[in-house]
Design brief:
Blueprint: H1 5-43, E1 52-65, E2 69-83, E3 86-100, E4 107-118, E5 123-133, E6 138-150, E7 153-159, E8 161-162, E9 175-192
């Protein structure tokens, strides 16, 4: 019995795609581990060695694109720290995300995210969890992100891991590029030397606030 040539070719292409996806996922994991080590080696953790820290509430806005367009708007809790000219930002946010395409197929998602940006190389790493909903279906996705950032701004690449609804439209691609920004509107705390206890924020004239 002869097997049609096009069937063999289709099977071969499918196997190559699966092999490629396995290598891609391994690369993403290794890259994240390497980047996280590099980032933490530059920024460290909050300690008495930090010169200044500031904690704020902020508006969180973003635009994303790959196969579809998306916008997000929400609130963030951010902490800015700086030592010897090198700073970093640690933040988490809760937002609403709206996805659309030229055919007006739309989806909405509540979204929770966390990220760390900074160091001498301006790296940004984070992750988000979103639950997408449209009129007929839903999808829950986890998205690790890696890219570059400068204080309140980030440009990152993310890879969507679909826990449910893998073929959900309009989010049926794993790849996504996101630009986001923070707009501070309330300062919650200021500290010197990066400690939450002890010294108060001082003005240039030496007086305590």
């Amino acid at each position: 019995m002869n097997i049609p040539t096009f069937s063999c070719q289709a099977i071969s292409v499918h196997l190559h795609i699966e092999k490629y996806l396995i290598y891609l996922k391994k690369f993403i994991v290794i890259f994240f581990l390497f980047a996280s080590g590099l980032l933490f080696s530059q920024t460290g953790q909050p300690s008495k060695n930090y010169q200044t820290t500031k904690t704020t509430l902020a508006a969180h806005i973003g635009y994303q694109y790959y196969a579809f367009h998306g916008v997000e708007l929400g609130f963030a809790h951010a902490r800015y720290s700086k030592q010897g000219g090198i700073g970093y930002v640690r933040a988490y946010a809760f937002a609403g995300e709206l996805i659309f395409n030229p055919d007006s197929v739309m989806a909405f998602a509540p979204k929770a995210s966390f990220w760390l940006t900074g160091g001498a190389y301006f790296l940004s790493m984070g992750a988000s969890a979103s639950y997408y909903i449209n009129k007929s279906s839903s999808s829950f996705r986890i998205r690790p992100e890696i890219g570059f950032g400068l204080k309140r701004f980030r440009l990152v690449y993310g890879y969507n891991f679909a826990l449910t609804g893998n073929d959900f439209v309009p989010v049926n691609t794993p790849h996504i590029v996101t630009f986001s920004a923070l707009i501070d509107f309330k300062v919650l705390k200021r500290n010197q030397l990066g400690t939450d206890k002890g010294s108060k924020w001082k003005r240039k004239d030496g007086a305590n606030k």
